[in-house]
Amino acid sequence: MNFDRELDARGLNCPMPIVKTKKALSEMSSGQVLKVIATDPGSVKDMEAFAKQTGNVLLEKTQEGNAFVFFIKKA
């Protein structure tokens, strides 16, 4: 999937992946896609909830080894 920016949140625990995702999205334009890589298992549910609460779109979520990869489109 194409993306405009990548955020490496590996090794960070809740709530830091969400905090850093929020900051990264605030610096992006509407319609741009952020790729987030996280290792915190809680980030799966956190990213889903974050997208719903903020109106951003969680385009895709996958697992690659011990990392979770999310593609979020800024509203």
Describe it.
It is a single chain. The protein has 75 residues and is of the alpha+beta class. It has a single domain (5-73), classed as Translation Initiation Factor IF3 (2-Layer Sandwich). Helices cover 31% and strands 35% of the residues. It has helices at residues 16-26, 43-54; strands at residues 5-9, 33-38, 57-64, 67-73. The chain has a four-stranded mixed β-sheet, with helices on one face. The longest helix is centred in the middle third of the chain and has 12 residues, at 43-54. The radius of gyration is 11 Å and the shape is globular. The two termini are 18 Å apart.
Itemize the secondary structure elements and their pairings.
Layout: E1 5-9, H1 16-26, E2 33-38, H2 43-54, E3 57-64, E4 67-73
Parallel strand pairs: 1-2
Antiparallel strand pairs: 2-4, 3-4
In brief, what are we looking at here?
The chain is of the alpha+beta class and 75 residues long. The chain has helices at 16-26, 43-54, and strands spanning 5-9, 33-38, 57-64, 67-73.
Shape: globular
End-to-end Cα distance, whole Å, is 18 Å
Mean pLDDT: 97
Q: What's the quaternary structure here?
A: single chain
CATH class: Alpha Beta
* Gyration radius from CA atoms, angstroms: 11 Å
Major beta-sheet overview: 4 strands, mixed
Approximate strand percentage: 25-35%
Q: Order of strands across the widest beta sheet?
A: 1-2-4-3
What is the β-strand count? 4
List keywords for this structure.
single chain; 75 residues; alpha+beta; Translation Initiation Factor IF3; 2 helices; 31% helix; 35% strand
